[in-house]
Amino acid sequence: MKKLFLLAFVLCAGLTSQAQTHSWQELHELHENELYPLAKDVAEITDKVIANGNVISIVKSTGTTSLVKELDKTVPIKFYNYKLLTSAGRQLALTDPLMANKVIDKFFDVLRRVKESSKSDNKKEIYEILESL
Length: 133
Hints:
With about 130 residues, the chain is α+β, with helices and mostly antiparallel strands. The chain has helices spanning about 1-20, 25-45, 95-120, 125-130, and strands at about 50, 55-60, 65-70, 80-85, 90-95.
């Protein structure tokens, strides 16, 4: 029984470490160095993306979805909290690193596809990509 429990523990620990692709520090650096500059570039292409301060917003026909990064002043180290905001007033704190990774990756994917589609100047395709968020 001990061996079975140990095997299950090792397998679960391996899966958990693979699922969390970025630490909180890596997420901060990814947001600051890659995601936000990409959002600024896409915001110049279309008015459906807004990048202002630490907020990246995507405007869709159903409303606006925003990713907010804010400094947590309750801890003595430089740490950021991430939130997902909707125009319906929902505010979802991304306290789970796995969920924060998924949301940031989704924003990254959408913005990257919009930037690639803008090279062919196809507005309809750009709007479809933004609506898929």
